[in-house]
Amino acid sequence: MAVTIDSVIYLCLVAILWGVTNPFMKKGALGLEDVKATSFYGQFVKEIAFLITNLKYLLPFLVNQCGSVLYFLTLQSTDLSLAVPVSNSLTFVFTAITGWFLGEEKVHRNTYLGMMLVLCGTTLCCWDKVNKTVEL
């Protein structure tokens, strides 16, 4: 399947949407552990009600789901062996960066090293796929 620069850009956008929203959903879900019910099903219903009525959780969740829709649409025109590693690996990078900006935790030197290795690996993967498409 042909891999274009557009596909790579869309996959990076998916990673941004997924990665940036993860820390916001985590913050929005604060207080979920305080929701209590007497039965398993009651607990499930109360937790769902808590989440869908909480805008601090719901808005990032909806943006995250927009990323999922974009991912689904991008899969129609891109190679799966490129889509999965690019979107999933870059999601971790954007989650770490966003968490750092939100003050979740201090970023360790090894985290920076890991992010650089992820970026290098993703770049090589994209470069290889795009170059193979151009050669054909």
Automatic annotation (TrEMBL):
Transmembrane segments: 7-25, 82-103
Membrane topology qualifier: Multi-pass membrane protein
Pfam families xrefs: TMEM234
Compartments reported by the entry: Membrane
Family annotation (InterPro entries): EmrE-like, TMEM234
GO cellular component annotations of the record: membrane
Keywords, in A-Z order: Membrane, Transmembrane, Transmembrane helix
Annotated PANTHER family: TRANSMEMBRANE PROTEIN 234
Family: Belongs to the TMEM234 family.
Protein's name in the database: Transmembrane protein 234 homolog isoform X1
Organism in which the protein naturally occurs: Temnothorax curvispinosus
Gene: LOC112462222
